[in-house]
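Subject: Protein record for review, amino acid sequence with backbone structure tokens
Why sent: The fold of this protein is of interest and is recorded here as tokens.
Enclosed: The protein record, placed directly beneath this head.
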Amino acid sequence: MLSVNKGKTDREAKIILGFNCNNNCFFCYEKSKRHLLPKNTEEIIKEIVVARGKGFDKISFIGGEPTLRQDLLDLINYAKNLEFSQIMITTNGRMFVYSDFVRKITQAGLTQVVFSLHGPNKEVHDQITGVPGSFKQLVEGIKNAKEFPGLASGTNTTIVNSNYRYLPEIARLLIKWDIKRAEFIWVYPPPLVQYKKIVPMVSKAYPFCEETLKTGLAKNYLWRILNPPLGCSFGGLFHHIGYAGHNEATLFIKTKKSRIYASLEEEKIIEWQKEKVCLSCKVREKCFGAQKRYLDCFGGKELKAVK
């Protein structure tokens, strides 16, 4: 048995359970990995112990879709027994339509759930997920989760060409549901051949992002835009953007399967670069610059130094 260090840390350990999913989002980077076998219970328990042994106080189970696993409640309960202060999953929310499931997963030790919401209505959301009825299930799931005071709810929304105009409408839904933590994540850069079809230009999406952020700020909610291809475009709102994956750790144990997972995570790293205009920008020390693939597709005409 590995020793457990219960020291506190602000970092969050992310454990990838597998890549199976019952949605079919067209932008999903993980879709090409669904043929890979998910980790078994023993492998995941070892990673939970490693995370605690390294002093992580927070743990997040991600996929794929975690709620498809038969052992999810056991894994959450194991983490609870190791006294993680925060145990979280990211989910499409469809299993949360069953109130009995929500009760059981909360009793097992889940403290926070992040729902993936990609549109303000069934037309937009279901078109993105590729599953008719997924929006209705998600909305019911969010309402069910709100019935459990000990379970904190948040959302993430992937920003793509087909939904950026609807971000303010999504924001109004989140206010209605009292969602205090929300992340709006620019889609992971697809291959150049698909880029313009999927990825919105920052200059076109910015007004909708600005309205959305200001809606949350007016309520003092913790809402952020993550991984915008050009951080400088957000000017005075720059401090409300972030870069996912740089203040956390994805853990792997030393098995053949986990080495495959680790190599796939390395492929997912976004390439950033600084241009000449960045030298005179007052946020240059905190900004990653511009996404290389974005510049390859749209050029640098949108780049501007924050004064």
